[in-house]
């Protein structure tokens, strides 16, 4: 059972952040056996595909170098030219095989885990120079697994080689009696088939190693419950810090709201539990009154105090105050269902202003039974 240094079991699935961090550190699934099988199969396939061309080039190379005249042998310049020509022929002969092996050796490692370049892998790790850590790795489960795989590969290749050589025994003995050209081509074919069968034997080990590497990598990335909590705190912030930020945001919002109260046209109250402040300015293109402040209890009291200080009309309408409070957000227009009720309130407020300015008669008392739709009514 895998345990962390704190003694907690790693029972939680790795988070996306843990997977990303592990990948950045180069901790991804890799299978050496898969790479070995891919390169061996590619080499065997290349010998099967280009074996004839390779054999013919080798025979041409031997003919050229075994048929030198005496004049060429005693002339150092000719020998240098023959050496250069032989090198070119040899390179061209093995070039298809080497090119295929190069491509496969690059593609095979990224077949499991994808392409990855991590700078952290290039950094020296002095902890690996610790002899105690080295001895611990030598007797770890991973080292035992690698030993078992190495022994399995050895015996697998040995068994396949014995079977292949036993099956091709007559063909191998016949090579000694074949003409040189035919013997070389035949030898290349036997080597190609032998490599192919040995690679096929290694497929069994790779088929077992790939899921093992995936499981082992996933197991290393698993987390304890405490690690999940710590990661959440680091990414989302500590609860007390978030609470403090929300508190500061509420305070800033309330300050902005209170600063808008003096500009309101009317404050409608419950009378004590609710208070909403409305502003209507048709010159700014507003189709309906705007809610500039709202609150309950202490905040409602503060709204009324500021409104009284700045001579904002304060009216009592419990049903309308509750309806506006629950149906409208700050700096939003009131819903259409409240247009008629609010219009009556604003009409009364404007009449009061006209009367105070000496331009009209005293308005009739505001009708407390304002028209509020059933779907917008709220109980106290």
Automatic annotation (TrEMBL):
<keyword id="KW-1006">Bacterial flagellum protein export</keyword>
<protein>
    <recommendedName>
        <fullName>Flagellar biosynthetic protein FlhB</fullName>
    </recommendedName>
</protein>
<dbReference type="GO" id="GO:0009306">
    <property type="term" value="P:protein secretion"/>
</dbReference>
<keyword id="KW-0966">Cell projection</keyword>
<keyword id="KW-1003">Cell membrane</keyword>
<comment type="function">
    <text>Required for formation of the rod structure in the basal body of the flagellar apparatus. Together with FliI and FliH, may constitute the export apparatus of flagellin.</text>
</comment>
<feature type="transmembrane region" description="Helical">
    <location>
        <begin position="143"/>
        <end position="165"/>
    </location>
</feature>
<dbReference type="InterPro" id="IPR006136">
    <property type="entry name" value="FlhB"/>
</dbReference>
<dbReference type="GO" id="GO:0044780">
    <property type="term" value="P:bacterial-type flagellum assembly"/>
</dbReference>
<dbReference type="InterPro" id="IPR006135">
    <property type="entry name" value="T3SS_substrate_exporter"/>
</dbReference>
<keyword id="KW-0282">Flagellum</keyword>
<comment type="similarity">
    <text>Belongs to the type III secretion exporter family.</text>
</comment>
<feature type="transmembrane region" description="Helical">
    <location>
        <begin position="34"/>
        <end position="55"/>
    </location>
</feature>
<keyword id="KW-0812">Transmembrane</keyword>
<keyword id="KW-0813">Transport</keyword>
<keyword id="KW-1005">Bacterial flagellum biogenesis</keyword>
<keyword id="KW-1133">Transmembrane helix</keyword>
<feature type="region of interest" description="Disordered">
    <location>
        <begin position="360"/>
        <end position="380"/>
    </location>
</feature>
<dbReference type="Pfam" id="PF01312">
    <property type="entry name" value="Bac_export_2"/>
</dbReference>
<keyword id="KW-0472">Membrane</keyword>
<keyword id="KW-0969">Cilium</keyword>
<feature type="transmembrane region" description="Helical">
    <location>
        <begin position="97"/>
        <end position="122"/>
    </location>
</feature>
<keyword id="KW-0653">Protein transport</keyword>
<feature type="compositionally biased region" description="Basic and acidic residues">
    <location>
        <begin position="7"/>
        <end position="27"/>
    </location>
</feature>
<dbReference type="InterPro" id="IPR029025">
    <property type="entry name" value="T3SS_substrate_exporter_C"/>
</dbReference>
<feature type="transmembrane region" description="Helical">
    <location>
        <begin position="195"/>
        <end position="215"/>
    </location>
</feature>
<dbReference type="GO" id="GO:0005886">
    <property type="term" value="C:plasma membrane"/>
</dbReference>
<feature type="region of interest" description="Disordered">
    <location>
        <begin position="1"/>
        <end position="27"/>
    </location>
</feature>
């Amino acid at each position: 059972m895998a345990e962390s240094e704190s003694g907690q079991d790693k029972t939680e699935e790795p988070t996306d952040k843990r997977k990303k961090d592990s990948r950045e550190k180069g901790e991804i699934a890799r299978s050496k056996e898969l790479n070995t099988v891919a390169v061996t199969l590619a080499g065997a396939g290349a010998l099967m595909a280009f074996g004839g061309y390779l054999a013919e080039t080798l025979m041409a190379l031997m003919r050229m170098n075994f048929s030198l005249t005496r004049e060429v042998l005693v002339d150092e310049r000719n020998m240098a030219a023959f050496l250069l020509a032989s090198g070119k022929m040899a390179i061209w002969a093995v070039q298809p095989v080497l090119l295929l092996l190069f491509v496969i050796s690059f593609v095979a490692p990224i077949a499991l885990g994808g392409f990855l370049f991590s700078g952290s892998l290039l950094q020296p790790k002095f902890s690996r120079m610790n002899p105690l850590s080295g001895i611990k790795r030598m007797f770890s489960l991973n080292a035992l697994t690698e030993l078992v795989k190495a022994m399995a590969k050895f015996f697998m290749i040995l068994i396949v080689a014995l079977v292949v050589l036993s099956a091709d025994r007559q063909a191998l003995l016949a090579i000694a009696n074949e003409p040189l050209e035919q013997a070389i081509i035949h030898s290349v074919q036997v080597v190609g088939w032998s490599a192919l069968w040995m690679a096929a034997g290694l497929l069994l080990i790779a088929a077992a190693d790939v899921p093992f590497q995936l499981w082992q990598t996933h197991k290393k990335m698993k987390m304890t419950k405490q690690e999940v909590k710590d990661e959440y705190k680091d990414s989302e912030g500590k609860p007390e810090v978030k609470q403090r930020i929300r508190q500061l945001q509420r305070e800033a919002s309330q300050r902005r709201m209170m600063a808008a109260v003096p500009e309101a046209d009317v404050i409608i109250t419950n009378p004590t539990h609710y208070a909403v402040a409305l502003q209507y300015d048709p010159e700014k293109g507003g189709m309906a009154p705007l809610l500039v402040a709202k609150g309950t209890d202490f905040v409602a009291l503060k709204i009324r105090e500021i409104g009284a200080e700045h001579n904002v009309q304060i009216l009592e309408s419990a049903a309308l105050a509750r309806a506006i409070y629950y149906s409208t957000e700050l700096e939003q227009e009131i819903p259409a269902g409240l247009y008629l009720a609010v219009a009556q309130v604003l009409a009364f407020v404007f009449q009061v202003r006209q009367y105070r300015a000496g331009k009209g008669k005293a308005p009739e008392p505001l009708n407390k039974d304002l028209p509020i739709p059933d779907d917008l009514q709220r109980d106290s």
